[in-house]
């Protein structure tokens, strides 16, 4: 399946779903008041990175893109606005498979490009969107595709054909329509059965990937976004020393920070020395260890 000439007709017969309903328990206490999907990486909320990636493929708007929400759903709903169709799950998250099952009427016969909101991808050789286009190119609409990186140890549990999953998959309608709107995960419901049937194809992704699920990986993703220097948002006030750090808009840094993320509107006082931590609002400091 290749993209036609007109951006509005990109990848006909395919829609996209960004999974943003999870509680982000491994990232607590950062996620006690902010859903993981809205945690900033490189001063951009993770959810926006996913939506921008889809927009780079020509997949935009509530007719082509859906976002699910559950934990702190009001924040996700307000942040997305009219940019995507919103699927708010009641009570508790339905998981990766149940979230798609809950969207069956909206998917309505189409193939689905599924992305995890917490996946940080950065391919220096491709702009956002085209870096995952290989999942769609040449797709016959029947097989299951995963984006993956070769694993250092292909025998480690959780790998697929010797690859580690990197946040995006492509699923045919014939499998999605069978997913119930009850709790379940795609690994057991779709990916492993497809692998056993010889219907799973892993597409190699050569860029950087972090799942941002832990403070350590979350910091690593931010430092990757910052590159060799510091990434300071407009509107931040910095009078201290900032080295290999990310500072959000409205933040005030009077002390010294190194290998650190300072969230928007957070403060680092004069005399503070922060290294390998995330500083959030209210003086919350989370070690990246």
Task: For the structure shown, list the relevant keywords.
27% strand; 289 residues; 19% helix; Spore Coat Polysaccharide Biosynthesis Protein SpsA, Chain A; 7-stranded mixed sheet
Instruction: Please report the total strand number as a whole number.
Output: 22
Radius of gyration: 19 Å
The main sheet comes to: 7 strands, mixed
What name is given to the CATH topology of the largest domain? Answer: Spore Coat Polysaccharide Biosynthesis Protein SpsA, Chain A
Strand order, largest beta sheet: 5-4-1-6-9-8-10
Spatial shape? globular
Concise structural overview:
The chain is of the alpha/beta class and 289 residues long. The protein is 19% helix and 27% strand. It is globular and about 60 Å long.
Q: What does this protein structure show overall?
A:
This protein is α/β, with parallel strands linked by helices and 289 residues long. It has two domains: 7-210, Spore Coat Polysaccharide Biosynthesis Protein SpsA, Chain A, CATH 3.90.550.10; 227-287. It has helices at residues 46-55, 73-80, 95-101, 104-107, 173-176, 186-196, 215-226, and strands at residues 14-19, 40-41, 44-45, 65-69, 85-88, 111-116, 120-122, 144-150, 163-171, 200-204, 208-210, 231-232, 237-238, 242-243, 246-247, 252-253, 256-258, 261-262, 267-268, 273-275, 277-279, 285-287. The radius of gyration is 19 Å and the shape is globular.
